[in-house]
From TrEMBL:
It comes from Fusarium euwallaceae. Transmembrane segments: none annotated. Its EC number is 2.3.2.31. One of its GO terms (molecular function) is ubiquitin protein ligase activity. Residues 49-60 have a biased composition (Basic and acidic residues). PANTHER family: RBR FAMILY RING FINGER AND IBR DOMAIN-CONTAINING (PTHR11685). InterPro entries: E3_UB_ligase_RBR, IBR_dom, TRIAD_supradom. The lineage of its organism: Eukaryota, Fungi, Dikarya, Ascomycota, Pezizomycotina. Residues 76-304 form the RING-type domain. The keyword Signal does not apply. One of its GO terms (biological process) is protein ubiquitination. This is RBR-type E3 ubiquitin transferase.
Length: 340
């Protein structure tokens, strides 16, 4: 047993140095995994060997074995559902620890540890802080949302560090006295307890990291030489103009009420704040609207025009989207004539 532990430690050190394991049993060649995952995989290998030896002594059926140059090795191959990599030792590459029991109880663990790690990283990169509380198991038959502990187990150090910081930022942002520095390159944020709203300049705060001056009340850079009341009067006309622009160019998210401006994309919208999906034209829940015309609200363009699908139309408005569609059709016809 002592020799096995030493061998496992040496293999772990090799893996952490980025070396490929000659036998290729633990991870696919050319890949690296987090230290915690590598250590877990190696411990799994030791446990597997002991279990097979015990089952052999008890006369239980054994997995298939192969012989190469006089050496016999146990093989239990399995293919990852994402990368299609075939691993010769499934128990090493596919996690089945207690921390992932909510997933393993629902479906086969058919995604390798490398792809699980990459999945978490891509979610954070593409969705930012919005993903922190909604990183789900990639298996299509599973709706489990990974917990903090599970992500710590699966992610590499750099990804988990980013995730951990974003979780901290989310929790801090919920504190009423927390303000983040508004200077572009400064990432500092802090809680201010010495605010005096009754004083003319009691809402003036300073970033402890870079010294940038801000207004606590207005969540903005400090309004130079103006008290908050004077600044409010100056902003009144601007505010009315802003409200008119918002009314003409944005719609509130049906779920969280945050104003959303539509770009030139399709009419299937996803709120960047709460991740709610809806039809931009009628604000119907996308889970209902995606079923067809009947899922859209009365008066919606897509409820009366079967030839047009929300995800096939692109533009800021329906009129613009129709013009774009007509332009694409004309270009298609011209290209077709050229190819004849």
């Amino acid at each position: 047993m002592e020799g096995q532990v030493l061998q496992a430690e040496l293999m772990l050190q090799a893996r952490l140095r980025g070396m490929n394991l000659a036998r290729g049993r633990f991870v696919a060649v050319g890949h690296t995994v987090p230290e915690d995952v590598a250590r877990y995989m190696l411990l799994q290998e030791l446990g597997q060997r002991q279990r097979h030896e015990r089952e052999k002594r008890e006369g239980r059926p054994q997995p298939a074995t192969t012989t190469n140059n006089g050496k016999t090795t146990t093989e239990m191959s399995k293919q990852c559902a994402i990368c299609i990599e075939t691993y010769t030792n499934a128990e090493d590459a596919f996690p089945f620890p207690p921390v992932l029991r909510p997933c393993s109880a629902r479906h086969d663990m058919d995604v390798c540890v490398i792809c699980l790690c990459t999945h978490i990283k891509s979610q954070l990169e593409s969705r930012g802080s919005a993903a922190c509380e909604d990183i789900r198991c990639p298996n299509l038959d599973c709706d489990h949302v990974y917990t903090y502990k599970q992500i710590k187990f699966l992610a590499d150090r750099e990804t988990f560090s980013r995730y951990d910081q974003q979780c901290l930022n989310i929790n801090l942002a919920k504190q009423p006295n927390f303000r983040r520095c508004l200077r572009g390159r400064c990432t500092n944020g802090q809680i201010y307890d010495d605010i005096d709203p009754d004083s003319p300049f009691g809402n003036r705060i300073f970033c402890s990291e870079c010294g940038f001056v801000m207004c606590f009340k207005h969540h903005s850079p400090w309004h130079q030489d103006l008290t908050c009341d004077e600044y409010d009067l100056q902003r009144k006309d601007d505010s009315q103009e802003t409200e008119r622009w918002l009314a003409e160019n944005t719609k509130p998210c049906p779920n969280c009420n945050i104003p959303i401006e539509k770009g030139k994309g399709c009419f299937h919208m996803t709120c960047q704040f709460c991740r709610f999906e809806f039809c931009w034209e009628c604000l119907a829940d996308w889970r209902v609207a995606r079923s067809g015309r009947g899922g859209h609200r009365e008066g919606c363009f897509f409820s009366t025009n079967a030839a047009f699908a929300p995800m096939a139309m692109h533009g800021r408005t329906i009129v613009e989207a129709q013009r774009n569609r007509e332009r694409e059709n004309r270009l298609g016809e011209q290209l077709g004539r050229l190819l004849r």
